[in-house]
């Protein structure tokens, strides 16, 4: 069949094309300078590259004239309706008055930001076949009309699907990438159309750098090869059998919607969300893909596998020679200063924010002024900086002694810099002990608003440094714990040990709590009732048993604790409560009484 002949021819052409690319990768680079004086020394260098023509691989012959080539004779012109002039910059915002195209760069001539950082959009409905310059297909299985697409509520839908299948497909995409009308997904598609299908890759009409007829021919050959053997649109259809996604290897059940890239293989399928460019990993816009070495690419990144892209103008390079610098490829005249557009071939330049600048522009825009001599610090000098201040290497010196501070410790003071010695002598805090300054790295001990060197913060008794040990303040000075305990601390009257806490005072004498005990039974007397005998403490029980008078009635000791009153008569003693009539138990306190053979009787009982 004709389609089989074309497929075989396309595969053969791709094989030849891949062979050509392998040969191209073996080409050597050569440096080109006008004379030896122009050779850069310790600066970024450029090199000129010679590339082989693609013309020898252009498609020809009867097999290539079949209707499968999208760029065949009679194909329509690319339709691109991008609105960029006057659009605001998304990076500069109000600083940019609106996009104005640079003469040859892909930047804004007003703010110098890249074109893609401006709010560029496609005017009206975009049919991707029109953008590619491919003839529209009236088959509803392969093409959705504008009316059908908008009726479904999207800016693009896969062709050949029912409404339910369209919704099923869209549900599998990330929410912010679903091209629903008036949604972030619609804006996302618009951006990807501009980025993945750059207009300068699609038609020579949008190329500013095709200067010769040979370059125009090379562009045409590139487009024919791309459209014939690599580029196509994915087809969405139900999976015939249980299979797996070629991207994520996830399972796909029979009947589930998948995307098939027919130019890659009819047996390979993808989840809708996995049909992405393997370089930028973005969804392939409107299912438009290019295949190379059995991998999927958007047109932009596929083209960069075949031809180098100039980062200055964002166009593919079709000239026989081009410049290689900073691991990127430039048109010969496009390696230029980002600010003034001066050509930098065989010239010294400096990278700033990944863009080359000539020496004068770099000094004007980015070089810092030296704090000392107030002159700009050029690229031939070291720029030494501290916070917001900068110095030439030879100007970075102490303000007082003018000693160089390169690789030396320094300290700032009053917008000046000083070496460590001059700073310490003039500004450093001083020790209250020796009056010498504190130098960098020294330990400082502070107490009650005063400060000392480590070796100056000493005990007033033994003069040993306190360091990190405990101390006790005394008479505006400090004493180490051993000296304090030996010379100043209170000592227990009983054990002579130092009383650190919880002591007891009795008759102006200090005791440990555990040492202040009854002389007889050793019971602790703290918070207990006690009395003394011959200056010795006794608990109430021991004192009563050993020294107190005994009640003649109850025989218990009369101690007097708690305000107890007692009665004495002829060397006999009674508790006040026990001084009662021995017969009727009437209290005799404050009354007259009789004594009968030692017993106390009330007058009534005595008369009886």
Quick synopsis:
The protein has 608 residues and is an alpha+beta fold. It has 13 helices and 33 strands. A hairpin with a 2-residue loop joins strand 22 (471-474) and strand 23.
List descriptors:
alpha+beta, 3-stranded antiparallel beta sheet, single chain, 20% helix, 608 residues
Give a written overview of the molecule.
With about 600 residues, the protein is of the alpha+beta class. About 20% of the residues lie in helices and about 20% in strands. It contains 13 helices and 33 strands. The chain has a 3-stranded antiparallel beta sheet, with no helix packed on it. Strand 10 and strand 11 form a beta hairpin. Helix 1 (about 1-25) crosses helix 7. The longest helix is centred in the N-terminal third of the chain and has 23 residues, at about 1-25.
């Amino acid at each position: 069949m004709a389609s089989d002949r074309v497929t075989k021819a396309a595969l053969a052409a791709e094989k030849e094309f891949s062979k050509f690319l392998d040969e191209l990768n073996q080409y050597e680079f050569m440096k080109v300078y006008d004379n030896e004086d122009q050779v850069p020394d310790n600066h970024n260098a450029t090199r000129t590259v010679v590339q082989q023509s693609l013309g020898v691989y252009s498609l020809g012959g009867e097999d290539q004239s079949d209707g499968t080539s999208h760029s065949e004779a009679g194909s329509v012109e690319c339709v691109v309706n991008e609105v960029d002039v006057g659009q605001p910059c998304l990076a500069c915002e109000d600083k940019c008055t609106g996009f104005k195209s640079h003469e040859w760069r892909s930047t804004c001539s007003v703010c110098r930001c890249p074109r893609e950082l401006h709010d560029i959009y496609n005017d009206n409905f975009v049919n991707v076949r029109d953008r590619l310059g491919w003839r529209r297909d009236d088959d509803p299985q392969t093409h959705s009309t504008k009316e059908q697409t908008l009726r479904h509520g999207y800016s693009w839908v896969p062709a050949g699907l029912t409404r339910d299948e369209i919704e099923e497909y869209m549900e599998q995409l990330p929410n912010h990438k679903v091209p629903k009308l008036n949604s972030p997904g619609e804006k996302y598609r618009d951006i990807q159309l501009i980025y993945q299908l750059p207009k300068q890759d699609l038609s020579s009409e949008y190329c500013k750098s095709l200067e010769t007829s040979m370059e125009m021919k090379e562009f045409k050959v590139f487009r024919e090869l791309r459209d014939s053997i690599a580029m196509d649109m994915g087809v969405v259809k139900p999976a015939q059998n249980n299979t797996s996604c070629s991207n994520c290897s996830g399972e796909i059940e029979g009947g589930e919607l998948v995307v098939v890239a027919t130019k890659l293989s009819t047996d390979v399928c993808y989840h809708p969300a996995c049909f992405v460019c393997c370089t930028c990993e973005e969804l392939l816009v409107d299912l438009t893909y290019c295949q190379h070495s059995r991998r999927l690419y958007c047109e932009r990144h596929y083209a960069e596998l075949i031809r180098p892209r100039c980062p200055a103008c964002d166009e593919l390079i079709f000239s026989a020679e081009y410049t290689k610098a900073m691991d990127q490829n430039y048109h010969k005249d496009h390696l230029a200063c980002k600010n003034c557009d001066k050509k930098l071939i065989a010239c010294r330049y400096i990278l700033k924010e990944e863009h080359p600048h000539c020496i004068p522009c770099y000094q004007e825009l980015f070089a810092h002024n030296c704090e000392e001599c107030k002159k700009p610090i050029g690229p031939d000098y070291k720029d030494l900086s501290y916070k917001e201040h900068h110095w030439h290497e030879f100007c970075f010196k102490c303000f007082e002694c003018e000693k160089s501070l390169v690789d030396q410790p320094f300290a700032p003071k009053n917008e000046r810099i000083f070496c460590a010695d001059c700073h310490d002598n003039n500004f450093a805090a001083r020790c209250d002990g020796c009056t010498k300054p504190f130098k960098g790295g020294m330990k400082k001990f502070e107490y009650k608003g005063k400060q000392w060197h480590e070796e100056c913060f000493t005990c007033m008794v033994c003069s040993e440094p306190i360091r990190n040990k405990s101390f006790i303040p005394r008479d505006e000075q400090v004493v180490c714990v051993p000296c304090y305990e030996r010379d100043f601390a209170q000592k227990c009257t009983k054990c002579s040990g130092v009383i650190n806490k919880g002591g007891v005072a009795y008759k102006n004498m200090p005791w440990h709590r555990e040492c202040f005990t009854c002389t007889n039974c050793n019971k602790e007397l703290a918070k207990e009732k006690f009395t003394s005998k011959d200056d010795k403490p006794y608990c109430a029980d021991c004192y009563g048993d050993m020294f107190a008078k005994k009640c003649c009635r109850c025989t218990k000791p009369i101690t007097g604790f708690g305000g107890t009153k007692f009665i004495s008569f002829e060397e006999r003693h009674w508790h006040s409560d026990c001084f009662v009539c021995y017969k009727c138990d009437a209290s005799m306190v404050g009354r007259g009484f009789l004594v009968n053979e030692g017993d106390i009787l009330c007058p009534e009982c005595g008369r009886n």
